[in-house]
Write a structure and sequence with these properties.
Layout lengths: L4 E4 L2 E4 L9 E4 L2 H5 L4 H10 L9 E8 L6 E8 L4 E3 L10 E10 L5 H14 L11 H21 L27 H5 L13 E10 L2 H7 L5 E8 L2 H18 L14 E3 L3 H36 L3 H4 E9 L1 E8 L2 E8 L1 E3 L19 E3 L7 E6 L9 E3 L8 H7 L2 H8 L3 E2 L18 H9 L4 E14 L4
Helix pairs in contact: 3-8, 4-8, 7-8
The structure holds one DNA strand of 6 nucleotides.
Cofactor: Mn(2+)
Protein name: tRNA-splicing ligase RtcB
Family: Belongs to the RtcB family.
DNA sequence: ATGTCC
């Protein structure tokens, strides 16, 4: 078993041993540390620390749990000159991410019947669950190349959103460098899921802004206590999944040619500057842009559903985009005066006030970073601080699983599930289909969020409480 | 996460 050494409040060290090139650091509160059972995730951090060109420290966030190659809740920086790029370091669901919309609708105005009507109107428009196709099939057929190369920008040009949405999306809704020529035919054929939600932890939820911790910043973010909020969590669906699968195979096969000794197939990687590395980056950008476009189209559908059910205009409803963050992505960024490729896997970028990569609208506050809890617990809006420099301005992306999907299905009873969901509405007819997503399968979101805010890496801005949740059904 | 194993 790997030992963690406490090196500060909520901060633990996994010291460099064996062929690790750098240390690893894990952020855990005392309670999260006591309950910590993620030996495999620590192995994965150690593995990442052995890769060529890895820089600084490999980081585990408080929501860390084992994943494919790099753990979920993992951050790995590599030097552009001599470092590697890893498809598994980004993850299967490229640019899985979450966006938050604010409204000017007082939540206490809505009774359960009305909330249900809203959820039904949203569900009528957005296919959910694994393997579901899109109602915007025309976009896939006629504009796919431009959408994956130009992301949300292309959709805004076509009228699927507001001009001002773009500033409120990480990378302004388009990661530069996408080239569909780097994407396999098989991946392209799976791109027909544009404008679908998917399954697993993906959701659309209606919530209420329950607590404000910082009035000034909340106002800039458009978050007012007691108003209805909408959160959309989805990614690049089968398209991104296929890109990761394709390039993991390529990287496993070519890594030896570059003298790379792979500790784990899931961490398959090649030099950033290699032909295969550059190709993967181009393809990954397509997956990133697909996911931005996916969330943009879902936003378009949600706004339409709201107009229909309320019979009011956007002007009266708000429905403004607060922000859209990526959870699974690799990006070229400058930290410590060095050009690095930051792999964030189940981790969120959180820039502090004044950082030049903030959008103009949020330059003086830092952009909102959105942290969803589980289907039955709160979510948070936070900002990064200057102290987040030590994590390459990265924070956790959610609560983190504490039970595997299988264990959750086996161990949680119907009564336990229903009591955890209390008076929260959910769309699923059969609770068994979402039992693996039960609140009990996740860590305590308050504890996880506090782990970073207590040591000043984040500042909490607002807390959101779910009222109604739309989930895709697994099997 | 995922046409959850071509």
């Amino acid at each position: 078993m790997i030992r963690l050494t406490k090196i500060g409040k909520n901060k633990f060290l996994l010291p460099k041993t064996g062929n690790m090139r750098v240390d690893a650091v894990v952020y855990l509160s005392e309670k999260l540390f006591r309950d910590f059972q993620e030996g495999e995730a620590l192995e994965q951090l150690k593995n990442a620390a052995t890769l060529p060109g890895v820089y600084g420290v490999v980081i585990g966030m408080p929501d860390i749990h084992s994943g494919f190659g790099l753990p979920i809740g993992g951050v790995m920086a590599t030097r552009v000159e001599d470092g590697v790029i890893s498809a598994g370091g980004v993850g299967m669901d490229i640019n899985c991410g979450v966006r938050l919309l604010s409204t000017s609708i007082p939540a206490d105005e809505l009774d359960k019947r009305f909330l249900r009507k809203l959820m039904d109107a949203i569900e009528d428009r957005i296919p959910t669950g694994i393997g579901k196709g899109s109602r915007h099939g025309n976009l896939y057929k006629s504009h796919f190349k431009e959408i994956v190369q130009r992301g949300a920008i292309k959709l805004i040009e076509m009228g699927y959103g507001r001009e001002e949405d773009l500033e409120c999306i990480e990378e302004n809704g388009c990661l530069d460098g996408a080239d569909i020529a780097a994407v396999s035919d098989e991946a392209v054929s799976r791109g027909n899921q544009l404008a679908t939600l998917g399954g697993g932890n993906h959701f659309i939820d209606l919530g209420v802004v329950e607590d404000i911790y910082n009035e000034k910043l909340a106002e800039v973010f458009g978050l007012k206590k007691g108003t209805l909020s909408i959160m959309i969590h989805t990614g690049s669906r089968g398209f991104g999944h296929q890109i990761c699968t394709d390039y993991t195979r390529i990287m496993v096969n070519t890594a030896p040619r570059y003298g790379i000794d792979l500790p784990d197939k899931g961490l398959a990687c090649v030099p950033i500057s290699s032909a295969e590395g550059r190709q993967y980056y181009k393809a990954m950008c397509c997956g990133v842009n697909f996911a931005f476009a996916n969330r943009q189209l879902i936003t378009y559908d949600v706004r339409e559903a709201f107009r229909e059910v309320f019979n009011r205009d956007d002007d009266e409803l708000g429905l403004d985009l607060v922000y859209d963050v990526a959870h699974n992505i690799a990006k070229f960024e400058t930290h410590f005066n060095r050009r690095l490729l930051i792999h964030r896997k189940g981790a969120t970028r959180a820039l502090p006030p004044g950082h030049p990569s903030n959008p103009k609208k949020y330059m003086e506050t830092g952009h909102p970073a959105i942290i969803p809890g589980s289907m039955g617990t709160a979510s948070y809006v936070v900002v990064g601080t200057e102290l987040a420099r030590e994590t390459f301005f990265s924070i956790n992306h959610g609560a983190g699983r504490v039970l595997s999907r299988g264990a959750a299905r086996k161990e949680i009873s119907q009564q336990e599930f229903e009591s955890a969901m209390a008076d929260i509405l959910y769309n699923t007819r059969n609770y068994k289909k979402v039992l693996d997503e039960a609140p009990q399968a996740y860590k305590d979101i308050d504890e996880v969020v506090n782990t970073l805010s207590e040591i000043g890496i984040t500042r909490k801005i607002a807390k959101l409480r779910p009222l109604g949740v739309i989930k895709g059904e697994g099997d």
